[in-house]
Structure formats: C-alpha cells, structure tokens
Amino acid sequence: MKKDKPDPNSVKGISRRNFLKGFGITTVGAAVFESGQATKNLKAAGLLNVSDSIPIEGAKMILYVNSKEYSVHIKPKETLAEVLREKLELTGTKTGCERGSCGACTVLIDDNPVNSCMFLAVDAVGKQITTIEGVASDENLHILQNEFIENDALQCGFCTPGMIMSSLAIIKKNPAPDDEYIRKNLSGNLCRCGTYPKVFQAVIKAAKG
Fold first, then answer.
1. What is the pLDDT of residues 154-204, one digit of tens each?
2. From 16, 35, 63, 96, which residue has the greatest number of CB atoms within 10 Å?
3. Which residue, among 82, 84, 60, 86, has the nearest Cα to 72 in the 3D structure?
C-alpha cells in the first residue's frame, strides 16, 4: 500500500501551518487577558465583540429604546429580545422560533430591521432601538398601524408587531415601494394566517399617505 509522504513542516501530525495558527490564537488570547489596551485595539479592529469584554455576570448598561434611556443589567450572552421583554417589560416584541427565521421579534436598530432573538443586547448599547411600543405618537396610531387595521392585514396578530416593524423600515428607506420591493423586504416575516396580500396593500397605502 502506498503511503503518503510525511509533511517536512509537521511534527507528530501537527503541521507547521496549524501550529502557527494555534500559536497566534494563544498569543492574542494572552494579550487580551494581560492588557486592557490589547482588548481596546482588538475592538477597534473589529476582532472582538463588546460581549467578549464584559464580566460573565454582566454589568449595568444604558439602552436607548423608543427615545427613552434605560439603565439595565445585561449579561454578555443575553439577547435583545430577552432584555426587552423580561427586563424592560416591552412585551410587544414577540418571540417565535428564537432562531431568526420567523421575524416575529423584529425591532429597528438605527432604523434597520433586526431579529432581536439573534441580536445580543450588549451590541445594541449606544444605538437607537425602536420597538412596536414606540411606533405610535402619544395616543395617535402611526399611519402604517392604521392601514393595517383598515386593510384587515392581521388575524391572530402574533406576527403583526414584527411585520409592522419591517414594514416601517421599508417606507423609511423607500417612500414609493412597489409590490416586488415589499415582498422582498418582508420575506423574513412569516404569517401563519396567510394575510400577506393585505399586508402588502397596507404598506403601499401607508407609503402613499
């Protein structure tokens, strides 16, 4: 049986490339623990998440939600959906699949729609967060909310908060969206009741209004 030639750059099955990769990772890890400046440098280079630099038990942080400031204790691996619902009691944001597939948990971060069940709360620090509770103005519904009602764009209502948040992002970015644009940008929001045609109609009318 023909045997493969040994790699001249390997020792006992450990290749030179893998050794250097492992050494590099170990060195970076040691630098992070040994120097706070190294952590800052890695963050600045985009190689370290905020969650990697806070204690495992969490810390007090400031979240800006619906134009209000909240001081809340956040753990590194807590999702934004968990913090919104369980700590800030903003339960309009729903959790469905909890893996970013259904869109029920959609909120806006700096006017961009995100699945809050997959977004770490610590990564939302310093950003403007908008939930369904912040869409209406005082006692007046947003035109998008009114059009959802007028066009009967909801049935059970579970997907509606996330659907409205994604729709709001659409009309903020495109004041005259066509049906194809709306379908594409709402493709991540699932409705088990199948009210999609009514939703598309509501978004088009809200954009015109």
1. 999 999 999 999 999 999 999 999 999 999 999 999 999 999 999 999 999
2. 63
3. 60
Domain map (residue ranges) of the chain: 14-48, 54-98+119-132, 143-208
Backbone φ/ψ region at 158: left (φ over 0), alpha (ψ -120 to 50), beta: alpha
Q: 31: exposed, middle or buried (C-beta count within 10 Å: 0-12, 13-18, 19+)? A: middle
Cα–Cα distance between 134 and 163 in angstroms, integer?
14
Angstrom distance (rounded) from CA 116 to CA 106 = 6
Separation between Cα atoms, residue 195 and residue 15, nearest integer Å: 57
* Partner residues linked to 11 by β-bridges: 14
- pLDDT per position as a tens digit, 11-60: 344 444 443 344 343 333 333 333 345 445 545 555 446 656 678 889 99
Tokens matching residue 8: 């001249």
Fold of 143-208: DNA polymerase; domain 1 (1.10.150)
Shared fold status for 54-98+119-132 and 143-208: no
